[in-house]
Amino acid sequence: MALPAPLNTALRAAAMLFFVVVVAACSRSSNDAVGLTGAGNLGPGGGAPGSQQEFIVTVGDRVFFETDSSSLTSEAMATLDKQAAWLNQYQNYRILIEGHADERGTREYNIALGARRASVVVNYLTSKGVNGGRITSQSFGKERPVAICNDISCWSQNRRAVTVVQ
Amino acid sequence: MTLLTRRSALKLGLAGSALLATSQMTMAQLRIVVEGANFQPLPIAIPDFASSDPNFGREIADIVRNNLRRSGLFLPLDPASLPVQVGDVNGTPDFNVWRTANVDALVMGSVERGGQISSSVRVWDTQQAAQVVGKSYNTDPNSARRIAHIVSDAIYEQLAGGTGYFDTRVIYTAESGPKANRTRRLAIMDQDGANVQYLTDGSTMALTPRFAPNGDLVTYMNFADGNPQVYLLQLSSGQQQRLANVGAMTFAPRFSPDGGTVAFSVEQGGATNLYAISTGGGSPVQLTSGAAIDTGPSYSPDGSRIVFESDRGGSPQIYMMGAGGGNAQRISFGQGSYSTPVWSPKGDLIAFTRQSGGQFHIGVMAPDGSGERLLYSSFHAEGPTWAPNGRVIMFFQDPGGNDGPRLMSVDIWGRNPLTIATETYASDPSWSNLRS
User: What is its main location (chain A) (predicted)?
Assistant: First the structure.
């Protein structure tokens, strides 16, 4: 059996674009409705209502963690609240939560840390009414970074849990 | 200094405190070696091995020279500088010629390829005009490099004491492709990097292979089922199977010293605990409980205890418990975090990865946590494994960015850091026992 398919190339590109928007939005104000204003700027890239692309671009498919932490930040909870609302509206999707760690840890510990982060997101979404039977989770440890560099700003993008709707 | 003195220095220094009660001079030698200061590798002359195929004789001698040089304990002299270019195992060397050339230790070898490969070797102490090793070996005709490793081990054992480690293999994770989507597959090679074979095709990620004591069975982490799961792989047959069906995810496996049990981590609902299971099947036995991450279990050589890492106190640290679980005691107390503890096959030390000061370090400590020494530090270094004689550690280091990991070795005194050349990026080394 093959690995669960990661985001396809187009979605991945959209996700990266969304990153830029999120970072810009965060720098302007803290708990702004992150992504919503940015999505407007993306025009058709926002995706049709109920589409995977809408989830990735408009709702936001990922949350970030502090170093060695699996606690949800206020920004992360805001994103997960929007994810839960969307997932409760569009109940036909199955949900995979991917847990990831940055490269500043050892391999086996980071596999466990990725699982712990995924578990925290699963628990939060189910607490917001998402049916746990729709959700599976997987840890990738530090093996699938999205940002490649040697500094803290970059590692912070890799400490993430990604909600994949499929 | 005579060869005998140097040889004694090597042997005594490496043998440890059991031989302390000798002369003042050897005590001084002992201290020098253990502290790593003023240590001088033993110069040794190894002419090409005599053979009806001179190229073959040179090839075998090159492997022996390379092994001994890479150990850091020997300094093989330039073969072109030697008074005799090709070995002679039948006669007695002209000791005066060798003494004049400042050679104290001399290896004379021969090798022939027939139905089997046969090799004979004699090691001479030119100062004492005495033979210190005389051995003959046969191997199957496809094992030319192995006979060179076996000869190397014989020389090492006589001159440096303890057991050798050259006739061994390393199983590791071969990595290729861009960092964000890297292919990771299992590979195996001789300890010096020769004879690489790839064991998995890379279609699913494979990580952290560990040898069983018999060198034929391997346990590793396989992502074929989605979440990583522990698998057993038999090298001789190529057959493999999942080890256990417990929890959401199983990983971080390691064999017990008798090979009959695998200790590993089980993740369920974000909590990771340690379990053990017989390789013959049966139910997994839970060894730790709680909401923390407990991983990286490694058995003591007598099988009675397990050292592991846990973040139950906040950051990852090293803990010790009985092999049946329960009553774990923390043994690491330095600044930063500690992970990947691995018990030395001699039982005297535990190797680990430590993160502190923005760096990664490979180090060793006694099983009670005392006497910590850091052997190698860099931007990222991780995952020690022991040579079977307990004197050399292999691990991987990664310069970061878009670059990838490479295997390295260092001795337990922090001397002689070496990169092991591999054709791909490489991580997660596991060192086999001496082959039989």
Answer: membrane
CA-to-CA distance for A63 and B373, rounded, in angstroms? 39
- Å between B429 CA and nearest CA of chain A: 13
Domain count, chain A: 1
- Residues of A with Cβ-Cβ distance to B353 under 8 angstroms: 106
Q: Could you tell me the end-to-end alpha-carbon distance of chain A, in angstroms, rounded to an integer?
A: 17
Q: Taking the model in full, what pTM does it have? A: 0.87
Strands (E), A28-113: 62-64, 95-100
**CATH number of this structure's domain B169-431, picked from the four choices 2.120.10.30, 3.40.1280.10, 3.40.1130.10, 3.40.50.300:** 2.120.10.30
Binary contact (B226, A149; C-beta < 8 A): no
ipTM computed for the complex: 0.90
DSSP class of residue B50 equals: B
The dihedral over CA atoms of A31, A73, B354, B187, expressed in degrees to the nearest 10, equals: -90
CA distance B214 to chain A (A): 24
Of residues A141, A128, A127, A146, the one with CA closest to residue A62: A146
What are the pLDDT digits (tens) for A27-61?
333 333 333 333 334 445 678 999 999 999 999 99
Is the Cβ pair B227, A139 closer than 8 Å? Answer: yes
Report yes or no: B316 and B309 within 8 Å, Cβ to Cβ: yes
As a whole number, the mean pLDDT across chain B is 90
